[in-house]
Every structure is written in structure tokens, then in C-alpha cells.
Amino acid sequence: MLLEARKVTKRFGGVVALSDLDLQVEEQTIHSIIGPNGAGKTTFFNCVTGFLVPDEGEILLDSQPITGLRPDQIARLGIARTYQTIRLFRFLTVLDNVLIGLHPHVHYGILDAVIRSRRYHRSERAAAREARELLRYLGLAGKEFVVANNLSYGDQRRLEIARALALRPRLLLLDEPTAGMNPYETGQMITLIRRLRDERGMTILLIEHDMKVVMNISDLVTVLDFGEKIAEGKPAEVQANPLVIEAYLGRGAASGLGTIAAQAPRDESMPNASS
Amino acid sequence: MRRALTFGLIGSIVAWHLSLVGLVAAFAERWLIGQSLTFSYVVLLALILLVGYLTARRVSDWTGLAGAALAGLVVGLALWILALIVTEVNLRDAFVAASPSLAQILTFDRGVSVPSLAILLLIGAATGLIGGGIAWIPATGRRIVIGALSVTVLVGLLRDVLGPVLPPFLMRFLFSPGGGLSLPGAVIVLGLAIAIPVMRSGLRMQRVRQKGVLPARVLRRRRLALRALGVVFFVSFPLWAKLFLSNVADFVGLYILMGLGLNLVLGFAGLLDLGYVAFFAIGAYSMAVLTSPELGAFTLGFWTALPIAVAITVFSGILIGLPVLRMRGDYLAIATLGFGEIVRLLVLSDWLKPHLGGAQGVTRIARPVLGPFVIDRPQEYYYLILIGCGLGWFLSVRLRDSRIGRAWMAIREDEDVAQAMGINRVTAKLLAFATGASMGGLSGALFASLVNSVIPQSFSLLVSINVVALLVLGGIGSLPGVLVGALALVGLPELLREFQEYRLLVYGAVLIAMMIFRPAGLWPEETRVRELEEAAEEARETARTGVVAASQDGV
Fold it and tell me: Quick check: A163 and B422 CB within 8 A?
């Protein structure tokens, strides 16, 4: 068990964004969280990464509690994330973006930086090498000195993942990585996520609206609705669950429309402002 | 037609404003070219040129030029009407500057009469027409023409400054005895100001046509040469500059040092600190308290007091930083603004008078002693300040190109994401505050010793605003920008005494113009871009030689 959430509750005023949520993420799996807009998926991500502190319950990484730690401490423990709306350092170069991700792994002090000691040169060279290797892995080689803002949309998404990988995380949280992508780019992203698990032994927690993607790559799917877990299981099991269909299509729809459930939520694959 | 009238009216309002606040009358004292053209006429002509340019811009046929002339005509008419009003009605209760002498200036000493009206209308229309013509010149040419005109005006204005520096025969030739440039001098300056950029752009075109981009090696060599030239210039400066210029250079240097410090905080880490004067004040007062026998607490020497003063400032930087670091953007600005004022009020207060001197301040601050020499002339202080600036520059570069600088930039771009990348925002921001404060403190300590006294009035909000403004002017985050900004914002007004009174008016106008025309600053951060281009070029070159070597191996 890499990540475990125990009875996590988060309220915003009177709104219960997460209610008694239990979630377990196994090592080296792709675990998807789905659910209608406002189901609390991104809130859960924010709780895991430390940007929000749950009102109740706790979150454990490798059986160690991480609730209440600062976001940068959690990042150093090995949790990296991407954002629903791309949040790159837009006016810095591609290489600098990745180098910033490597920040916790570049070790030298202020004095080393000022006198440019051997330690500085060694660390900087190693960091640059690692950053370039990551960019190559994600197919961004040759774009090191492009300003991030000038990358194409798909490249920006990939750069965000490269930056997250630079943290050398054990758990990677991807918030709608295929939002706004065309089918070709989506296909590439699916391949990439699989490779991250298979080649790099990464554990991936994924929020995704595109059901084709979810059904295609998930080892396990958790369905949230109004902050509660309403179903969990293998993609096929979840797909057939009447509660899930109801959550997506409304009460009454569950009776006869089960077969189109897989396609229907695709309406939500538009990049939405909130969820 | 309507467009022309609108711009003409706007221009008229501006012209009235400039005249009524006294700018025109004040600038009339300054002869620019011989005894024929004063600076106030240049300002008004420039205004009409601008009006004409704006009218004719984006209108591609002859109506544009006609409109420009019409707009200029309107401004000319407005000026004549103003002269008429000023002579007929006594407005001096409301506008001190609305004196008969203003009317004299506006009507070229001809009184409010038909001939003066005709002259004003003619000049207005002609200048508007020229302004419209400028809009027709292609962009590069326009830049050269405008640049050349400004340079000529600047040289004319700086006569008294250049006087002691240039060799006498050149002075006699370029400048007329009564004041301002001589006619041949003006022609030559203008000619040079046009010819040099034209030749340069011509050369560049030629080179690009020959072999594309310059190879990295040439660029590096050229940059090295430029650097050496810069060092020679800065080191030799006091030798040929006279007392007045050295004094100005000292002040510019102190501002550069402060600018470098604030640039770390605002330019790199993106923290808008509007109370930066606090660090300047703390540095200055530390120096004063530690060395002045007047207060009697300590009587250390300059060199012992200097590191202590800087250390105190760093400590206070952390102290001020701690409570405000959770704030963002506007809130941070307001909070730091408060701190700046608190420091000023503390040193002004009667409560701390026995320790800090109160409203009278502290005098008899120690001078630096080097062996048998006492440094006490501005020319000598210049070197101290130069070393300080060099140190600040060096620190800035080294920190910028390290993980620390990257962490700052990450926070500047997106604080949340920076945190998610494992950057501890508290330590990163405190480090920025502390390093920035150290430079402000150093600047303050040097200032206190240079002027030999500190008074609370020297540490007003205006200093903070000046430092922020010079950063904005030069280009936030850019180190050469700090230099350019300080020269333009602190150096020029010192040199052009007429500006002193209208400093804030000019500041406002310049800043607005900057936001519109050069939002990135006069010298934006592009060295980094150039370095990156060079790196890419080098990579390409090694790749090419690698291929060549490989193919030769094959043979």
C-alpha cells in the first residue's frame, strides 16, 4: 500500500467536499478517480499534496502520516502532481521548468552558488543531465531552450509531467492529463502513462473524465459522488454498477441505459473549470 | 477630420497644462541651440510633433497628413488663446505661472497680435505636418530619427555637465558662448546621431546576408571587449569627471546598489516591497550610531562598523520578512509600505532621540581610513560605491544562476506550484529579503559616511518609490536595467536642474509612456535569452564538427 486515506473529510463552509473517504492505492498501479463535476476529486488531490488540510481523517504515505505537513515537505516525500489547467512556469524555459522540479535533489548551499565551488558545478551538471534525460523520455528533446509558454498544448502537458517526474516521485497525481486533447494526443498520453508504470515503476493516481482513457488504462477505478465513494473496482465492474450510472445520468436512467454508460460521460471530457 | 480635432484638443489641453504649471516658463531659461531655441519651445514642438504623429498614424492616404497639420494648427491656436487670456485676465491667484512673461514666451516676444497669431498657426501646422510625416517613415527609420533628435536635445541640455569634461576646443566648437549648442555643433551632433545607427544597422544587414547569425566565438569575444571597456570607463571615471559629476555618480551608485538589492526581492522573487527604504535607513543609522561620537554609545571605525551595519540590516530584513511572508501581492506591498514608514517615524521620534538623534539626525559619522589616507572626497567614495555595486552585481548573477535563483523565479511565477515542487517558500523568501536587505543596508551605510550625517528626511517614502520606479524603467529582473534605470531616473534629474521641480510630473509621464511603449523596460532581461541562444549555437557547432570528424574517420 503506497497511499492510504482514512476517513478523510473536508468541508468548505456548509458544503461537504469529501466525506469519510477511504482510499487505498497499491504500488505500481494506475488508479483512476472518476465522478461528476464537484464530486471532490481535485479536493482530494489538494488534501494529498498538502494544499488543503482535511478536517477529519488522515492520509498515509507508506504507512507514515502526512496530514498536516507543508506542501513542500510532502513533495520531498515523493508525491508529485500536475494540474487540471496547465500551470507551468510560463515565462521560463523548458529546461528551467524541469530544473525547478529537481530542486529537492540539487544539494549545495548559498556559498557554493556564490563562489561556484566544485560542488556547485558537479550538482548543476548532474541536474542538467537528468533534466535533459527526462525531456528526451517525454519526447521534448531539442526544445530545452524554448520558453514554456510557446510550446504546443500537448507539449505543455508533457512538460508538466516531466517537471513532476523531476521530483523523482513515487506517487504521481495526474489531474485530467488528456483534457482538451485530440484523439491522437490522447492516444499518446495513454501510452505515456502506461510506460511510466511499466518502465519506471511509478504509481499513478489519475483524475479523468474521458471514459475511454479510464477504461483503457486503469487497474482500479474509484467513483466519487458528492464527496462520497459510491463504487470501486476493476473498470468493467464499475461500468456495470447501477449506482455509477445513476450518478452520471441521474435517477431513472439506470433502469435501461446501462449499455451506453461508457459513452455518455464523454460529454464531460471538455475541460471544465472546476470539479 | 474629427480625429484631427480630437488630437488637437488633447494636445491643447496638455500644452495649457504644461504652461500653467510653470514648466514652459522655467524651461525658457535654458538655451538649447544658440540664442534662438529654448528648451520650452522644444517641449512644445515635441508635443505638436507627437500630436501630428498620432493623428497621421494608421491613416495611409494624404488626409492623414492634412489631419496632422490641422491638429498642429489647433494646438498653435490654443497657445495663442492662452497667451491672450494671460495678458487680458489676471489668473495669477490661481496659477502663479500665468504671468505676462509666459505670454511673451508663447508669442515670441511679439505680444498678443495678429502677426504672432500667424506665426503660431504656421509653426503649429508645419510641426504637425512634420509629425505626420514621421508616421510615414518606416519603423526603423522612425526610431533612428526620434533617437537622434532626443540625443541632440540631451547634448544641448548637458552643456554645463560636459563643459569641464570635454577638451576646450571641442567645447568652443560645439557650444555657443551664450548657452546651448552652436548651430554647426547642433548639425554635427544630429548628423552623427543619425549616421551611427544607420551605419550600424547597415553593417548588421550586410553581415546577416553574408553568413547568417554571428558565431558564438565572435559574440563572446565582443562581449569580453565590451566588458573590458566598461571596466576601464568605470574605474577611470573620477579621473576625468570633475567634482560635480563624481557627486552625481556617487548618488547614482547608491541607487544602483539599492536597485540591485530590490531587484533580488522584486525582480527575482517577485515580492513587491514598497518599504525598501527601511533597509537603507537601518544601514545608515547603524553606521551613524556605531561611529558618531555625538551619541557617544559607540565610536567604532568605519571598517569595523560597516560589516556590523550590514549584519544588522540583514537581521532586520529577516525580522520584517517573517510576519509578511504569508501575504501575497497587494497585501505584501501595503504591509512593507507600513514598515518603511515605521522605521522613518521611529528615527524621527522624540522617544528614541537620545539614541538616534531625533529630527536633527546624527552628524560626525566616521570616514573610512586606509592606512595614512582618509577617504573623504566624493571622487574617493566613488570607488567604495563602485566596489559595493560590483559586489551586488556579482552576488545577483551568481544567485540568479543557481538553484536558489531558480527557486525564487518559481515563486515569482507561481507560488503554489513552487511549493508543490518541494521549494520551501519561507526560507526562499527570507533569503531573498535578507540578501536584498544587505545591499540596501550597505548602500545606506555608505551614504551615511559619504554625507557625514543622517537626518530622518533622507529616508522618505520617495526613496522606495524611486527604487521601484527605476526597476520598472530599466526592466524588472534585468541587471543592466538597474543601471540604465538609475542613470535615467536618478542621474538625469541631478544633471538637469530644471527638471527637479517637475520631477514627479515627468516620472508620471515617463512611467505611463513606458507601460504603453516598452512594458518590459528600457533594457529587459535578455542576456539570459542570448546566453541560451549561444548555448544552442555551440551545441549545433559541436554536432557539426562531430559529424565532420566522424566522416573523416570513415575516410
Answer: no
